[in-house]
Amino acid sequence: MTRKTINRTTMKKILVPCDFSDSARQAYKFAIDIAAANGGEVILVKVIDLTPVYVESLDSNPYYLHVTSVLKELEEDAWNDFEVFTKAIDAKNVKVTFVTEQGTVCRTLLNQIHKQEADLVVMGTHGVHGLKEFLLGSNNGKIVQCAPVPVFVIHHAQSFSRIKNIIFPTEIDLTQNAIVEKIKALQSFFNATLHLLYIKTPVNDDKMAELEMSLRNMARFYDLNEFTVNVREQNSEEEGILKFATDLSNSIIAMGTHGNKGLKHFIAGSIAESVANHSGETIWTYSIGAQQ
């Protein structure tokens, strides 16, 4: 069947959280590529978080008494870093705007997403592992859970033009209209093949052939085009997704998250957030829970 044309304007305004690190540089490059291909613009956001200054300055003359002067100095430093940062990377005639805002990272970025009316967030990450992840999670993970727009999590430099495959880990579920429509638009944008992936864990007694047939029926239900159906056995969903992605070159992983909160999220976490933290691949996520 001929692939339907889908409106690409949903990635016009791209917000990039920026701390001027190497991971932020990779995210910025990727955002520039998307904007250049789409006639879009990039908004770099530097969050100035004074919380550590407040906590660590409990002496007779703490810095928080002079927060205005400290903030002004940090803003000047950020603008100087911005000049150096952007001069080193070709913007390809894309409009680039720089914004600073004081606050905690997650809350400030969510505020900027709404304020800038962003369509997409592109974030760099080094990944988070072990005890720190269990207790605190990462700022990236929090944005993945809460952002009202799709989020790309970038681990390393990936050529925009080489993305030919989109891996969509999924349950066999006919109530995923919101996430599937977003992924169809993503597939159209990259002109990529969509790979439906179902991970069969040891607790699932269904036969492989039955699962494959159900996955094909789901693809027909959603009127998908240019796709493959893949069922893999693995001990956990995360392990299965990461292994499949490792074996498929020129790919990104596209996942939905329900934005779990509270004790459930603390104990189990979100598979999408976990994959975003541990995969070396580029991850695209869309928080269904943030839309409800």
UniProtKB/TrEMBL annotation:
UspA domain residues: 11-155, 164-279
Annotated TM spans: none
CDD domains (alphabetical): USP-like
InterPro entries named among the record's database cross-references: Rossmann-like_a/b/a_fold, Universal_stress_UspA, UspA
Pfam name, any one: Usp
Protein family: Belongs to the universal stress protein A family.
Official protein name in the record: Universal stress protein
Species this protein is from: Dyadobacter psychrotolerans
